Amino acid sequence: MLTVDYDRLDLRPGMTVLDLGCGEGRHAFEAYRRGARVVAVDWGQHEVATTKRWLGAIAEAGEAPAGARYEVVRGDLLHLPFPDASVDRVMASEVLEHIPDDATAMTEIARVLKPGGRVAVTVPRFGPERICWALSDAYHANEGGHIRIYRADVLRARLSTAGLVPGASHHAHALHAPYWWLKCAVGVDEDSAAVRAYHRLLVWDLTERPWLTRTVERVLDPLIGKSFVVYADKPAEVAVAAAGLDRERSAAAR
């Protein structure tokens, strides 16, 4: 289940892409299959091990182009272990809502991106997420849980403050919003026939991709899509300005 639109991210073979807060690797897998040099990053040891194992399986199955590469590292999004201006693309999917100091995380994303690079940020959408919070404290109030609900304008403003330029956006996973409302209503840790039945529907949709549910979700995404996705660029002018400053310093030194 992909939240990021790789065409809007403009991900091309040979690019270096970071998947931050990769979880168990769903976005890293697709980037690798598309020929990118993928670096998947997560703080969880289990997540790192699982992602590494599945990327290895994709490689063994020959599902990635010859030039594709992958690496999986355990890392802190507040202190990314990468040089300045070293990556072409960044994906940060459903992770910023977990981080208390999200401003520093966004600044780190801007730091490691090359001028002209692009990031895709996805977070739970305000409306569907607010309903989940109202129905269940257990949904979000736990260790490592969601600590904030973003409004679209607030997320865009914070990305701008970090030095990025927010652009296109969209919503995703409308069929998942009612599932989580139902799960929160009956208890996130409780089992029920209704939750199991809805889960089977989502699995069927994911594996079979039938035209009916795909069409329904496309229609409903703008209304109740559970995820909000925004793409932001690091201005190319940064490189020009930096080069000009270096020339001025060199002239002054002479």
Walk me through what this model shows:
Residues 18-120 form the Methyltransferase type domain. It comes from Blastococcus carthaginiensis. One of its GO terms (molecular function) is methyltransferase activity. This is Class I SAM-dependent methyltransferase. Keywords: Methyltransferase, Transferase. This protein has 254 residues and is of the alpha/beta class. Helices cover 46% and strands 20% of the residues. It contains 10 helices and 7 strands. The chain has helices spanning 6-9, 26-33, 45-60, 102-112, 126-135, 152-161, 176-186, 193-208, 211-224, 237-253; strands at 16-20, 37-42, 69-74, 87-93, 113-124, 165-172, 227-233. It has a 7-stranded mixed sheet with strand order 3-2-1-4-5-7-6, sandwiched between helices. Helix 3 (45-60) links the parallel strand 2 and strand 3 (69-74). The longest helix has 17 residues, at 237-253. It starts with 5 loop residues before the first helix and ends with a helix.
Q: What's the helix and strand layout?
A:
Layout: H1 6-9, E1 16-20, H2 26-33, E2 37-42, H3 45-60, E3 69-74, E4 87-93, H4 102-112, E5 113-124, H5 126-135, H6 152-161, E6 165-172, H7 176-186, H8 193-208, H9 211-224, E7 227-233, H10 237-253
What is the ordering of alpha helices and beta strands?
A: HEHEHEEHEHHEHHHEH
Rg (CA only) = 20 Å
Instruction: State mean pLDDT (0 to 100 scale).
Output: 92
Instruction: Outline the biggest β-sheet.
Output: 7 strands, mixed
Unreliable parts: 239-245
Overall helicity: 40-55%
Number of strands: 7
- Count the DSSP helices: 10
Strand order of the largest sheet: 3-2-1-4-5-7-6
> What is the 3D shape?
globular
Structural class: alpha/beta
